[in-house]
Protein backbone atom coordinates (compact mmCIF):
# COMPACT_ATOMS: atom_id res chain seq x y z
CA UNK A 1 0.00 0.00 0.00
CA UNK A 2 1.09 3.58 -0.51
CA UNK A 3 1.92 5.96 2.28
CA UNK A 4 -0.74 8.52 3.12
CA UNK A 5 0.17 11.28 5.54
CA UNK A 6 -2.44 13.23 7.47
CA UNK A 7 -0.99 16.74 7.84
CA UNK A 8 -1.69 18.86 10.91
CA UNK A 9 -5.24 20.11 11.47
CA UNK A 10 -6.09 23.72 12.30
CA UNK A 11 -4.63 24.82 15.60
CA UNK A 12 -8.00 25.18 17.34
CA UNK A 13 -9.12 21.86 18.78
CA UNK A 14 -12.67 23.22 18.91
CA UNK A 15 -13.02 23.37 15.15
CA UNK A 16 -15.71 21.01 13.92
CA UNK A 17 -14.64 18.55 11.24
CA UNK A 18 -11.22 20.04 10.45
CA UNK A 19 -10.36 19.88 6.77
CA UNK A 20 -7.11 17.98 6.45
CA UNK A 21 -5.31 16.78 3.34
CA UNK A 22 -4.30 13.19 2.76
CA UNK A 23 -1.57 13.07 0.17
CA UNK A 24 0.08 10.20 -1.62
CA UNK A 25 3.81 10.45 -1.06
CA UNK A 26 4.43 8.57 -4.27
CA UNK A 27 2.80 11.43 -6.18
CA UNK A 28 3.87 14.43 -4.11
CA UNK A 29 7.20 15.94 -3.23
CA UNK A 30 8.54 16.19 0.29
CA UNK A 31 7.46 19.78 0.84
CA UNK A 32 3.84 19.22 -0.14
CA UNK A 33 3.57 15.99 1.82
CA UNK A 34 4.79 17.49 5.05
CA UNK A 35 3.55 21.06 4.94
CA UNK A 36 1.07 22.25 7.54
CA UNK A 37 -0.42 25.52 8.79
CA UNK A 38 2.31 25.87 11.42
CA UNK A 39 5.14 25.25 8.97
CA UNK A 40 4.20 27.83 6.33
CA UNK A 41 4.89 31.55 6.57
CA UNK A 42 3.38 34.38 4.54
CA UNK A 43 5.14 37.61 3.53
CA UNK A 44 3.85 40.72 1.79
CA UNK A 45 5.43 41.62 -1.50
CA UNK A 46 6.16 45.18 -2.62
CA UNK A 47 2.95 45.36 -4.63
CA UNK A 48 0.90 44.37 -1.59
CA UNK A 49 0.09 40.84 -2.78
CA UNK A 50 0.75 38.14 -0.22
CA UNK A 51 3.16 35.47 -1.32
CA UNK A 52 3.86 32.12 0.27
CA UNK A 53 7.40 31.93 1.55
CA UNK A 54 9.47 28.79 1.74
CA UNK A 55 8.24 26.41 4.50
CA UNK A 56 9.97 26.90 7.84
CA UNK A 57 10.83 23.41 9.05
CA UNK A 58 12.62 22.72 12.31
CA UNK A 59 15.50 20.24 12.64
CA UNK A 60 13.27 17.97 14.70
CA UNK A 61 10.58 18.03 12.00
CA UNK A 62 13.18 17.21 9.34
CA UNK A 63 14.22 14.15 11.36
CA UNK A 64 10.59 13.09 11.55
CA UNK A 65 10.17 13.53 7.81
CA UNK A 66 13.31 11.47 7.19
CA UNK A 67 11.95 8.68 9.39
CA UNK A 68 8.62 8.65 7.56
CA UNK A 69 10.34 8.57 4.18
CA UNK A 70 12.49 5.68 5.40
CA UNK A 71 9.33 3.68 6.14
CA UNK A 72 7.26 4.66 3.10
CA UNK A 73 4.52 2.08 3.20
CA UNK A 74 3.15 2.57 6.71
CA UNK A 75 0.23 4.96 7.14
CA UNK A 76 1.83 7.92 8.89
CA UNK A 77 -0.58 10.09 10.87
CA UNK A 78 0.08 13.56 12.26
CA UNK A 79 -3.22 13.70 14.12
CA UNK A 80 -3.81 11.96 17.44
CA UNK A 81 -5.36 8.51 17.74
CA UNK A 82 -9.15 8.52 17.27
CA UNK A 83 -10.31 7.23 20.64
CA UNK A 84 -9.83 10.27 22.89
CA UNK A 85 -11.98 12.51 20.72
CA UNK A 86 -14.68 9.88 20.23
CA UNK A 87 -14.77 9.15 23.96
CA UNK A 88 -15.39 12.82 24.61
CA UNK A 89 -18.11 12.95 21.97
CA UNK A 90 -19.87 9.90 23.42
CA UNK A 91 -19.68 11.24 26.98
CA UNK A 92 -21.15 14.50 25.76
CA UNK A 93 -24.02 12.72 24.01
CA UNK A 94 -24.47 9.90 26.55
CA UNK A 95 -23.26 10.83 30.05
CA UNK A 96 -24.99 7.67 31.32
CA UNK A 97 -22.04 5.69 29.92
CA UNK A 98 -20.16 6.53 33.13
CA UNK A 99 -22.32 4.10 35.08
CA UNK A 100 -20.87 1.24 33.01
CA UNK A 101 -17.34 1.89 34.27
CA UNK A 102 -15.71 -0.21 36.97
CA UNK A 103 -14.84 -3.83 37.80
CA UNK A 104 -17.07 -6.86 37.44
CA UNK A 105 -16.95 -9.93 39.67
CA UNK A 106 -17.87 -12.11 36.70
CA UNK A 107 -14.21 -12.43 35.70
CA UNK A 108 -12.69 -14.32 38.70
CA UNK A 109 -15.02 -17.36 38.44
CA UNK A 110 -14.26 -17.69 34.72
CA UNK A 111 -10.53 -17.56 35.48
CA UNK A 112 -10.94 -20.43 37.96
CA UNK A 113 -13.10 -22.41 35.50
CA UNK A 114 -10.52 -22.15 32.71
CA UNK A 115 -7.71 -23.09 35.11
CA UNK A 116 -9.70 -26.17 36.13
CA UNK A 117 -10.18 -27.18 32.49
CA UNK A 118 -6.51 -26.76 31.67
CA UNK A 119 -5.23 -28.56 34.77
CA UNK A 120 -7.65 -31.43 34.13
CA UNK A 121 -6.42 -31.79 30.54
CA UNK A 122 -2.80 -31.55 31.66
CA UNK A 123 -3.39 -34.36 34.15
CA UNK A 124 -5.24 -36.62 31.68
CA UNK A 125 -2.53 -36.18 29.04
CA UNK A 126 0.39 -36.77 31.40
CA UNK A 127 1.02 -40.23 29.89
CA UNK A 128 0.43 -39.29 26.24
CA UNK A 129 3.27 -38.45 23.88
CA UNK A 130 3.28 -34.73 22.99
CA UNK A 131 3.29 -35.57 19.27
CA UNK A 132 0.39 -38.00 19.50
CA UNK A 133 -2.86 -37.06 17.74
CA UNK A 134 -4.98 -36.91 20.95
CA UNK A 135 -2.38 -34.66 22.60
CA UNK A 136 -2.09 -32.23 19.67
CA UNK A 137 -5.85 -32.08 18.99
CA UNK A 138 -6.62 -31.45 22.66
CA UNK A 139 -3.92 -28.78 22.89
CA UNK A 140 -5.27 -27.04 19.77
CA UNK A 141 -9.03 -27.30 20.24
CA UNK A 142 -9.40 -27.13 24.02
CA UNK A 143 -6.04 -25.78 25.14
CA UNK A 144 -5.71 -23.14 22.43
CA UNK A 145 -9.20 -21.82 23.11
CA UNK A 146 -8.73 -21.95 26.89
CA UNK A 147 -5.37 -20.18 26.84
CA UNK A 148 -6.59 -17.52 24.42
CA UNK A 149 -9.29 -16.95 27.02
CA UNK A 150 -6.52 -16.81 29.63
CA UNK A 151 -4.55 -14.21 27.65
CA UNK A 152 -7.68 -12.09 27.47
CA UNK A 153 -8.52 -12.56 31.14
CA UNK A 154 -5.10 -11.07 31.91
CA UNK A 155 -5.87 -8.30 29.42
CA UNK A 156 -9.09 -7.56 31.27
CA UNK A 157 -7.43 -7.72 34.69
CA UNK A 158 -4.64 -5.42 33.43
CA UNK A 159 -7.26 -2.64 33.32
CA UNK A 160 -8.14 -3.38 36.98
CA UNK A 161 -11.58 -4.64 36.00
CA UNK A 162 -11.84 -7.75 38.17
CA UNK A 163 -11.50 -6.14 41.61
CA UNK A 164 -11.35 -2.60 42.97
CA UNK A 165 -7.98 -3.29 44.58
CA UNK A 166 -4.95 -2.99 42.28
CA UNK A 167 -3.09 -5.57 44.36
CA UNK A 168 -5.96 -8.05 44.12
CA UNK A 169 -6.05 -7.60 40.34
CA UNK A 170 -2.33 -8.30 40.07
CA UNK A 171 -2.60 -11.43 42.18
CA UNK A 172 -5.50 -12.71 40.06
CA UNK A 173 -3.52 -12.00 36.88
CA UNK A 174 -0.62 -14.10 38.19
CA UNK A 175 -3.00 -16.91 39.17
CA UNK A 176 -4.52 -16.84 35.69
CA UNK A 177 -0.99 -16.89 34.27
CA UNK A 178 -0.50 -20.40 35.72
CA UNK A 179 -2.35 -21.89 32.73
CA UNK A 180 0.12 -20.34 30.26
CA UNK A 181 3.21 -22.01 31.73
CA UNK A 182 5.45 -18.98 31.04
CA UNK A 183 5.63 -15.74 33.10
CA UNK A 184 3.65 -13.15 31.19
CA UNK A 185 1.08 -11.15 33.15
CA UNK A 186 3.15 -8.38 34.74
CA UNK A 187 5.29 -7.75 31.66
CA UNK A 188 2.15 -7.49 29.56
CA UNK A 189 0.59 -4.89 31.85
CA UNK A 190 3.10 -2.11 31.26
CA UNK A 191 3.27 -2.59 27.51
CA UNK A 192 -0.49 -2.82 27.12
CA UNK A 193 -1.22 0.40 29.01
CA UNK A 194 1.29 2.12 26.72
CA UNK A 195 -0.50 0.61 23.72
CA UNK A 196 -3.65 2.42 24.83
CA UNK A 197 -2.08 5.72 25.81
CA UNK A 198 0.29 5.92 22.83
CA UNK A 199 -1.62 4.05 20.15
CA UNK A 200 0.37 3.95 16.93
CA UNK A 201 3.39 5.87 18.28
CA UNK A 202 6.50 4.44 16.70
CA UNK A 203 9.01 3.28 19.31
CA UNK A 204 6.46 3.19 22.14
CA UNK A 205 3.51 1.09 20.99
CA UNK A 206 5.11 -2.36 20.76
CA UNK A 207 2.02 -3.76 19.08
CA UNK A 208 3.36 -2.19 15.88
CA UNK A 209 5.55 -4.24 13.53
CA UNK A 210 9.02 -2.88 12.88
CA UNK A 211 10.35 -1.88 9.47
CA UNK A 212 12.55 -5.00 9.45
CA UNK A 213 9.57 -7.27 10.10
CA UNK A 214 7.58 -5.59 7.35
CA UNK A 215 10.41 -5.88 4.82
CA UNK A 216 11.17 -9.54 5.49
CA UNK A 217 7.58 -10.78 5.83
CA UNK A 218 6.04 -8.82 2.95
CA UNK A 219 4.85 -11.88 1.01
CA UNK A 220 2.47 -14.82 1.39
CA UNK A 221 5.08 -17.08 2.99
CA UNK A 222 6.19 -14.35 5.37
CA UNK A 223 2.66 -13.42 6.41
CA UNK A 224 1.86 -17.10 6.95
CA UNK A 225 4.95 -17.40 9.16
CA UNK A 226 3.89 -14.32 11.12
CA UNK A 227 0.32 -15.57 11.61
CA UNK A 228 1.63 -18.97 12.72
CA UNK A 229 4.20 -17.64 15.19
CA UNK A 230 2.65 -14.29 16.10
CA UNK A 231 2.65 -15.17 19.80
CA UNK A 232 6.47 -15.19 19.63
CA UNK A 233 6.54 -11.83 17.84
CA UNK A 234 4.41 -10.23 20.54
CA UNK A 235 6.54 -11.84 23.25
CA UNK A 236 9.95 -10.90 21.82
CA UNK A 237 9.32 -7.62 19.98
CA UNK A 238 8.97 -5.42 23.12
CA UNK A 239 12.46 -6.34 24.27
CA UNK A 240 13.96 -5.10 21.01
CA UNK A 241 11.84 -1.96 20.66
CA UNK A 242 11.29 -0.68 24.19
CA UNK A 243 12.54 -2.34 27.36
CA UNK A 244 10.81 -1.55 30.63
CA UNK A 245 12.17 -1.31 34.13
CA UNK A 246 11.35 -4.48 36.11
CA UNK A 247 9.31 -4.12 39.29
CA UNK A 248 8.81 -6.28 42.36
CA UNK A 249 5.65 -7.62 40.74
CA UNK A 250 7.65 -8.81 37.73
CA UNK A 251 9.81 -10.82 40.11
CA UNK A 252 6.79 -12.23 41.95
CA UNK A 253 5.24 -13.23 38.62
CA UNK A 254 8.39 -15.03 37.46
CA UNK A 255 8.96 -16.85 40.76
CA UNK A 256 5.30 -17.90 41.05
CA UNK A 257 5.12 -19.39 37.54
CA UNK A 258 8.50 -21.11 37.73
CA UNK A 259 7.67 -22.58 41.16
CA UNK A 260 4.33 -23.85 39.85
CA UNK A 261 6.04 -25.39 36.80
CA UNK A 262 8.50 -27.25 39.05
CA UNK A 263 5.67 -28.61 41.20
CA UNK A 264 3.68 -29.59 38.09
CA UNK A 265 6.60 -31.48 36.53
CA UNK A 266 7.43 -33.30 39.75
CA UNK A 267 3.80 -34.27 40.34
CA UNK A 268 2.59 -35.17 36.83
CA UNK A 269 5.69 -35.14 34.62
CA UNK A 270 6.97 -33.01 31.75
CA UNK A 271 4.09 -33.80 29.41
CA UNK A 272 1.67 -31.82 31.55
CA UNK A 273 3.84 -28.71 31.33
CA UNK A 274 4.35 -29.28 27.60
CA UNK A 275 0.57 -29.36 27.21
CA UNK A 276 0.19 -25.91 28.82
CA UNK A 277 2.98 -24.38 26.74
CA UNK A 278 1.71 -26.01 23.55
CA UNK A 279 -1.77 -24.66 24.31
CA UNK A 280 -0.28 -21.18 24.63
CA UNK A 281 1.47 -21.55 21.28
CA UNK A 282 -1.73 -22.64 19.52
CA UNK A 283 -3.63 -19.81 21.23
CA UNK A 284 -1.43 -17.32 19.39
CA UNK A 285 -1.10 -19.21 16.13
CA UNK A 286 -3.45 -20.20 13.29
CA UNK A 287 -6.40 -20.48 15.64
CA UNK A 288 -9.83 -18.89 15.00
CA UNK A 289 -9.65 -16.89 18.22
CA UNK A 290 -6.06 -15.75 17.58
CA UNK A 291 -7.24 -13.80 14.55
CA UNK A 292 -8.20 -10.93 16.84
CA UNK A 293 -4.50 -9.96 17.07
CA UNK A 294 -4.56 -9.02 13.37
CA UNK A 295 -8.21 -7.92 13.22
CA UNK A 296 -7.90 -5.21 15.87
CA UNK A 297 -5.49 -2.70 14.30
CA UNK A 298 -4.34 -3.82 10.86
CA UNK A 299 -5.79 -1.72 8.03
CA UNK A 300 -7.91 -4.37 6.37
CA UNK A 301 -10.04 -2.06 4.23
CA UNK A 302 -7.29 -1.00 1.88
CA UNK A 303 -5.35 2.28 1.68
CA UNK A 304 -6.93 5.64 2.39
CA UNK A 305 -8.18 7.69 -0.57
CA UNK A 306 -5.74 9.88 -2.46
CA UNK A 307 -6.01 13.67 -2.44
CA UNK A 308 -8.04 13.60 -5.64
CA UNK A 309 -10.41 10.91 -4.39
CA UNK A 310 -10.88 12.64 -1.04
CA UNK A 311 -11.77 15.90 -2.77
CA UNK A 312 -14.62 14.10 -4.49
CA UNK A 313 -15.87 12.50 -1.28
CA UNK A 314 -15.93 15.64 0.88
CA UNK A 315 -15.07 15.98 4.57
CA UNK A 316 -16.11 12.45 5.55
CA UNK A 317 -12.84 11.02 4.23
CA UNK A 318 -11.12 12.17 7.43
CA UNK A 319 -13.46 10.08 9.54
CA UNK A 320 -12.93 7.12 7.23
CA UNK A 321 -9.20 7.41 7.69
CA UNK A 322 -9.32 7.59 11.48
CA UNK A 323 -11.91 4.84 11.66
CA UNK A 324 -9.57 2.27 10.11
CA UNK A 325 -7.06 2.36 12.96
CA UNK A 326 -9.18 0.09 15.16
CA UNK A 327 -11.78 -2.36 13.88
CA UNK A 328 -14.39 -4.27 15.89
CA UNK A 329 -15.88 -7.73 15.44
CA UNK A 330 -19.33 -8.57 16.82
CA UNK A 331 -19.56 -12.30 16.08
CA UNK A 332 -20.11 -15.28 18.38
CA UNK A 333 -16.41 -15.91 19.09
CA UNK A 334 -16.61 -13.00 21.51
CA UNK A 335 -18.29 -15.44 23.91
CA UNK A 336 -14.95 -17.24 24.25
CA UNK A 337 -12.80 -14.10 24.31
CA UNK A 338 -14.10 -11.61 26.88
CA UNK A 339 -15.81 -9.57 24.14
CA UNK A 340 -12.42 -8.36 22.91
CA UNK A 341 -14.01 -8.07 19.47
CA UNK A 342 -15.72 -4.91 20.73
CA UNK A 343 -12.37 -3.28 20.22
CA UNK A 344 -13.38 0.24 19.26
CA UNK A 345 -15.59 0.27 22.32
CA UNK A 346 -12.73 -1.05 24.47
CA UNK A 347 -10.22 1.56 23.25
CA UNK A 348 -12.77 4.33 23.67
CA UNK A 349 -13.56 3.19 27.23
CA UNK A 350 -10.94 0.81 28.71
CA UNK A 351 -12.61 1.34 32.10
CA UNK A 352 -15.78 -0.43 30.91
CA UNK A 353 -15.58 -4.19 31.66
CA UNK A 354 -16.10 -6.84 29.01
CA UNK A 355 -19.58 -7.72 30.31
CA UNK A 356 -20.85 -4.19 29.53
CA UNK A 357 -19.21 -3.52 26.16
CA UNK A 358 -22.32 -4.70 24.24
CA UNK A 359 -24.42 -2.28 26.30
CA UNK A 360 -21.95 0.52 25.54
CA UNK A 361 -22.37 -0.27 21.85
CA UNK A 362 -26.16 -0.22 22.20
CA UNK A 363 -26.19 3.12 24.02
CA UNK A 364 -23.80 4.84 21.59
CA UNK A 365 -24.82 2.92 18.48
CA UNK A 366 -24.94 6.05 16.33
CA UNK A 367 -21.16 6.38 16.88
CA UNK A 368 -20.29 2.72 16.32
CA UNK A 369 -22.68 1.53 13.63
CA UNK A 370 -21.06 3.63 10.86
CA UNK A 371 -17.56 2.31 11.65
CA UNK A 372 -16.17 -0.60 9.60
CA UNK A 373 -16.28 -3.97 11.36
CA UNK A 374 -15.22 -7.56 10.68
CA UNK A 375 -17.79 -10.27 10.03
CA UNK A 376 -15.38 -13.17 10.59
CA UNK A 377 -12.10 -13.49 12.47
CA UNK A 378 -10.87 -16.54 10.49
CA UNK A 379 -11.54 -14.64 7.26
CA UNK A 380 -9.38 -11.80 8.55
CA UNK A 381 -6.42 -14.20 8.83
CA UNK A 382 -7.10 -15.59 5.35
CA UNK A 383 -7.36 -12.12 3.82
CA UNK A 384 -4.24 -10.91 5.62
CA UNK A 385 -2.21 -13.81 4.21
CA UNK A 386 -3.57 -13.94 0.66
CA UNK A 387 -4.40 -10.32 -0.22
CA UNK A 388 -1.29 -8.65 -1.73
CA UNK A 389 -2.59 -5.17 -0.83
CA UNK A 390 -2.59 -6.03 2.90
CA UNK A 391 0.36 -7.03 5.00
CA UNK A 392 2.81 -6.09 7.71
CA UNK A 393 2.93 -2.52 6.37
CA UNK A 394 -0.81 -2.12 6.89
CA UNK A 395 -0.59 -0.22 10.15
CA UNK A 396 -1.08 3.41 11.13
CA UNK A 397 1.93 4.99 12.84
CA UNK A 398 2.74 8.30 14.53
CA UNK A 399 6.02 9.93 15.49
CA UNK A 400 4.39 11.53 18.54
CA UNK A 401 0.95 11.88 20.07
CA UNK A 402 -0.13 14.11 17.19
CA UNK A 403 -2.39 17.14 17.01
CA UNK A 404 -5.62 16.91 18.96
CA UNK A 405 -8.81 16.70 16.97
CA UNK A 406 -12.21 17.97 17.94
CA UNK A 407 -14.72 15.56 19.45
CA UNK A 408 -17.30 17.08 17.09
CA UNK A 409 -15.72 15.20 14.22
CA UNK A 410 -17.55 12.07 15.44
CA UNK A 411 -20.89 13.83 15.98
CA UNK A 412 -23.12 14.22 12.93
CA UNK A 413 -24.35 17.82 13.15
CA UNK A 414 -27.96 18.65 12.43
CA UNK A 415 -28.34 20.59 9.20
CA UNK A 416 -27.81 24.28 9.82
CA UNK A 417 -26.80 23.77 13.47
CA UNK A 418 -23.82 25.82 14.62
CA UNK A 419 -21.51 24.08 17.17
CA UNK A 420 -21.72 25.63 20.63
CA UNK A 421 -18.12 26.63 21.39
CA UNK A 422 -18.82 27.19 25.07
CA UNK A 423 -20.35 23.76 25.41
CA UNK A 424 -17.39 22.27 23.55
CA UNK A 425 -14.95 23.88 25.99
CA UNK A 426 -16.85 22.45 28.94
CA UNK A 427 -16.59 18.98 27.46
CA UNK A 428 -12.86 19.33 26.77
CA UNK A 429 -12.24 20.46 30.37
CA UNK A 430 -13.13 16.91 31.41
CA UNK A 431 -10.42 15.43 29.20
CA UNK A 432 -7.78 14.76 31.88
CA UNK A 433 -10.30 13.33 34.33
CA UNK A 434 -11.82 11.02 31.72
CA UNK A 435 -8.41 9.77 30.60
CA UNK A 436 -7.53 8.85 34.17
CA UNK A 437 -10.67 6.73 34.30
CA UNK A 438 -10.26 5.39 30.79
CA UNK A 439 -6.73 4.02 30.96
CA UNK A 440 -7.15 2.40 34.39
CA UNK A 441 -3.39 1.99 34.87
CA UNK A 442 -1.80 1.98 38.32
CA UNK A 443 -0.34 5.46 38.04
CA UNK A 444 -3.50 6.92 36.55
CA UNK A 445 -5.74 5.98 39.49
CA UNK A 446 -6.86 9.13 41.31
CA UNK A 447 -4.60 9.57 44.33
CA UNK A 448 -7.53 10.26 46.61
CA UNK A 449 -8.79 6.74 46.07
CA UNK A 450 -6.56 4.37 48.01
CA UNK A 451 -6.34 0.81 46.74
Automatic annotation (TrEMBL):
Keyword annotations of the record? Lipid metabolism, Membrane, Oxidoreductase, Transmembrane, Transmembrane helix
For the region Disordered, give the residue spans: 1-50, 426-451
Q: Where in the cell is it found?
A: Membrane
Biological-process GO terms, alphabetical: ceramide biosynthetic process
Regions of biased composition (Low complexity) lie at: 30-46
Give one Pfam hit by family name. Answer: Lipid_DES
Residue spans with biased composition (Basic and acidic residues)? Answer: 442-451
Which InterPro entries does the record match to this protein? DES1/DES2, FA_desaturase_dom, Sphingolipid_d4-desaturase_N
Query: Which residue numbers delimit the Sphingolipid delta4-desaturase N-terminal domain?
Result: 69-107
**E.C. number(s) listed in UniProt:** 1.14.19.17
Taxonomy, superkingdom: Eukaryota
Cellular component (GO) terms are: membrane
Gene Ontology molecular function terms on file: sphingolipid delta-4 desaturase activity
Q: How does it sit in the membrane?
A: Multi-pass membrane protein
Q: Where are its TM segments located?
A: 105-125, 171-191, 216-236, 248-268
Family that this chain belongs to: Belongs to the fatty acid desaturase type 1 family. DEGS subfamily.
This protein is called: sphingolipid 4-desaturase
Amino acid sequence: MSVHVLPHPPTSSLTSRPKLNIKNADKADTASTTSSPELSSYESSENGVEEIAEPIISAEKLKQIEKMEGNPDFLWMTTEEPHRSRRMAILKAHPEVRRLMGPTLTTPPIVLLVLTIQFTCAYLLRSHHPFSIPFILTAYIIGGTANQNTFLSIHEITHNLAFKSIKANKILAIISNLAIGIPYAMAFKGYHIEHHKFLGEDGIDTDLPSKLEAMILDNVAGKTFFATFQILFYALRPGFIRSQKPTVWHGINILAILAFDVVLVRAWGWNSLIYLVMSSFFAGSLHPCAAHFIAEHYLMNGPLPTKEESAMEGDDWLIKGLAQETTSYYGWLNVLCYNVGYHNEHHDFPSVPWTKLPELHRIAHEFYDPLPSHESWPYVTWKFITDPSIGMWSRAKRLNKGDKISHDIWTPLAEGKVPDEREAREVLKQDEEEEELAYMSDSDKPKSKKQ
